[in-house]
Design goal:
The complex is a heterodimer of chains A (356) and B (360).
Chain A: E1 3-7, H1 13-37, H2 42-51, H3 57-82, H4 90-107, H5 116-142, H6 146-166, H7 200-218, H8 220-230, H9 232-237, H10 242-269, H11 280-290, H12 295-319, H13 323-345, E2 346-350
Antiparallel strand pairs in A: 1-2
Chain B: H1 7-18, H2 24-30, E1 34-39, H3 49-64, E2 68-73, H4 80-91, E3 96-99, H5 105-114, E4 119-123, E5 132-137, H6 139-153, E6 158-163, H7 168-184, E7 189-194, H8 201-213, E8 218-221, H9 227-235, E9 238-243, E10 254-260, H10 263-274, E11 282-285, E12 292-294, H11 303-318, E13 328-329, E14 335-337, H12 345-349, E15 358-359
The chains are: A mainly alpha (356), B alpha/beta (360).
């Protein structure tokens, strides 16, 4: 190997904060070249990608709407990732939670009452937890790898949702098209900003991020989870209940994913349809790592990720950038963010020839 | 009488005054081009459904030249993202917006409420509004022609059918195909595999392989990629292209293809907006109106079959043949349509049962 990678003993604090700025600068530069090579005028393309979505109140509200489920899910996942519990199936837990909440909404269809929405949230959280309990049980009882089980259950949840909207939950007046009735008002999240889709779920996402940060930083459980991740042997010697911690991680991330699903169907969607998530559960994994598994970092990462999606659509509409180019641009952003983060923490050196 | 005269009013007024000169001339000089937006569920390069709509978009550009400017957003997920994209188009000055997938229905209606002056055209849905039209094509008429050919060409008597989702549109296609095939060869079986996606070349191809392994020697699809036909080509069986002519992907295998031809409708609706004659409507056009066409028959279709297929097509155009004319029994043997009767459009549009011979 001509190169050697060493962990830096001391990280420069300045560089740590500078690295995202550097990454954005590199992305913009590379994007500039990319768009120019495609025959586009790079400046308007970049403007519509990164800036124009933020220039209106509506644009900002959409950013929050898109970021909310990503943040809600990623915050939960990060807790597990810190403790080496790899829940890859948030997409399925989101779906299952949404099914549970949707069943509540449809069951009380047409009824009025402030209790319907809280009941839906409860059902959504419990649904997500129940779905995450399957990998948790298999892991703690039989030692089955939770990456596999949680991932594969994702497809089961998607098919279950399909079966329900094609069957018992189908809108009776919907000409046999696969979707439920539109929820009535009591089952819909309140809109925070008139004229936009900004719903309560966005506020909830921020509150959840703060709550999880408190949990991880100031509580015994949080401490135990961090120890479990960084030094499993130490956790064992200290007598921490490893299995209990696995349960906590999976139930928490599952419950939050279920809540995110509830907010999606009670917010922007307003009904059950076969495709309630464009992969939020998977994107949230990227968001979690992009935010360095820190709840507040995840809030920022979720916003950046959401901006890259909305900016991509915006650039298609405004300057006719092909979707593939916007995809490459998103990839560049992630690449530079992760690369500069890596280089702040590690150094790459030419390996000296070792004579033994 | 309006007091404020916009530039468009003025131009249209002068165009009308110019009378027989028509629209194209005067408007092109002065007015801002009409912005027409398209929302696609797949990539424009799917060579199927979205490709067909994008051909329609290009037809508008070619037809109206500088009078229109088109924009499209591809690969838009059905769900919350669709509403944002549609709203983005509406708020950036697009006056006519085509949303071309069923899952865009409710998002389209929500945005339409916020932008009453923008005209919306939603493909394959059923809910209209004062500024939302719906349009769809009778693809199942094309399935009758395919079924007629299949009944002759199949040796095993088993046709494979790759379905996306069991929505009425797909179900009616399977049924129309099966009825037509069994009219020629009464013991024909149609095996359906659902891939739960409109566009997933990998899954579509795998489904095709599985169906061929089960004895199918005819491949039908209601998904958007050419993958099933490519598999058919490789395995030496025959099949039908979907939405666009897929001959280049399967020169020997493709018997014909059902073509979605949106050009005429898109041009007409664009003209309606330019002429300020646009009104909300709900249309379902087929072979007769040219919204559905058949691709040239492949070499594997013998001359006599070709004639029969043409006869079926002409009968559908003239109305002499109805795709769902009785007697029809469903899978369980329950009579659904009596001799001499046929299904109404409303019944077809809500179809959720399979005819005899379908194994779904």
């Amino acid at each position: 190997m001509p190169f050697r990678i060493d962990r830096r003993r001391e990280m420069s604090r300045g560089l740590l904060y500078l690295s995202p700025v550097l990454a954005v600068a590199m992305t913009v530069l590379t994007g500039f070249a990319l768009f120019a090579a495609l025959g586009q005028d790079p400046l308007p393309a970049l403007y519509h990608f990164g800036i124009s979505p933020l220039t209106t109140l509506y644009g900002v509200s959409e950013l929050l709407v898109k970021a909310a489920p990503l943040i809600t899910i990623a915050v939960g996942l990060a807790v597990g990732f810190r403790a080496n519990v790899w829940n890859i199936g948030a997409e399925g837990q989101l779906t299952f939670g949404a099914i549970a909440a949707g069943v509540v909404a449809l069951n009380f269809w047409g009824e009025e009452g402030g209790w319907i929405l809280p009941l839906m949230c409860l059902a959504g959280v419990l649904g997500g937890m129940a779905y995450a309990a399957v990998p948790a049980f298999l892991k703690t009882r039989f030692g089955v790898n939770e990456i596999l089980t949680s991932l594969m259950l994702t497809y089961v949840a998607a098919l279950l949702l399909s079966a329900l909207v094609f069957g018992p939950l189908k809108d009776p007046a919907g000409f046999n098209f696969p979707q439920s009735r539109m929820f009535t008002d009591s089952a819909l999240l309140p809109i925070i900003l008139a004229g936009t889709r900004l719903h309560f779920g966005a506020v909830a996402a921020l509150m959840i991020a703060v709550a999880v940060w408190v949990l991880m930083t100031f509580t015994i459980v949080g401490f135990q989870l961090r120890v479990l991740g960084q030094a499993p042997a130490a956790a064992r010697y200290a007598g921490f209940h490893g299995k209990r911690l696995i349960w906590i991680c999976l139930l928490m991330s599952g419950g939050l994913a279920g809540l995110a699903g509830t907010f999606e169907i009670a917010g922007p969607i307003g009904q059950l349809i076969p495709a309630i998530t464009p992969g939020y559960g998977f994107t949230a994994i990227i968001v979690a790592f992009l935010g360095r598994l820190h709840p507040l970092g995840i809030v920022l990462a979720g916003l950046v990720m959401a901006l890259s999606y909305i900016g991509g659509e915006n650039a298609q509409v405004e300057v006719g950038l092909p979707q593939a180019a916007t995809g490459v641009f998103q990839g560049l952003l992630l690449f530079f963010l992760l690369a500069s983060d890596f280089l702040v923490r590690y150094r790459v050196r030419l390996a000296r020839r070792v004579t033994e | 009488m309006k007091t404020a005269v916009t530039r468009r009013d003025f131009v249209l007024g002068s165009a009308a005054a110019a009378g027989t000169l028509g629209l194209a001339g005067p408007r092109a000089f002065a007015a801002e081009p009409l912005k027409v937006g398209f929302v696609y569920v797949g990539p424009v390069g799917d060579f199927g459904w979205t490709h067909g709509h994008d051909m329609g978009r290009k037809a508008i550009e070619a037809h109206f030249g500088g009078q229109v400017k088109t924009t499209f957003v591809e690969n838009v997920a059905e769900g919350p993202d669709a509403e944002r994209v549609i709203r983005q188009l509406a708020s950036s000055g697009h006056e006519l917006i085509f949303s071309t997938s069923f899952g865009f229905m409710n998002p389209t209606l929500r945005v339409a409420k916020m932008f009453p002056k923008v005209k919306f055209e939603h493909a394959t849905g059923y809910r209209t509004a004062p500024n939302v039209s719906v349009y769809n094509a009778r693809f199942h008429e094309g399935r009758v022609v395919c079924g007629t050919i299949a009944g002759h060409v199949t040796k095993s008597g088993i046709a494979g059918y790759i379905g996306s989702f069991p929505i009425p549109e797909v179900v009616m296609g399977i049924n129309a195909f099966t009825l037509a095939a069994r009219k020629i060869r009464p013991d024909t079986k149609v095996k359906v595999v659902w891939v739960n996606s409109w566009y997933d070349p990998g899954k579509e191809g795998d489904a095709a392989k599985a169906l061929i392994d089960q004895g199918a020697d005819i491949m039908c699809q209601h998904t958007d990629s050419p993958a099933p036909l490519q598999v058919a080509e490789a395995r030496g069986i025959h099949g039908f292209g979907q939405a666009s002519d897929m001959k280049t992907f399967a020169p020997n295998a493709q018997l014909t293809a059902i073509l979605d031809v949106w050009d005429g409708y898109y041009i007409q609706r664009t003209r309606d907006v330019l002429d300020r004659k646009w009104q909300s409507q709900s249309i379902w056009w087929g072979l007769k109106e040219g919204m559905v066409k058949m691709a040239p028959y492949g070499a594997a279709v013998p001359e006599n079959v070709r004639q029969e297929a043409e006869a079926a097509r002409e009968a559908l155009v003239s109305g002499a043949r109805h795709p769902f004319a009785g007697p029809i029994e469903d899978q369980k043997g329950v009579p659904r349509v009596a001799e001499g009767q046929s299904l109404s459009d409303k019944e077809i549009a809500a179809m959720d049962w399979y005819v005899e011979g379908v194994e779904a």
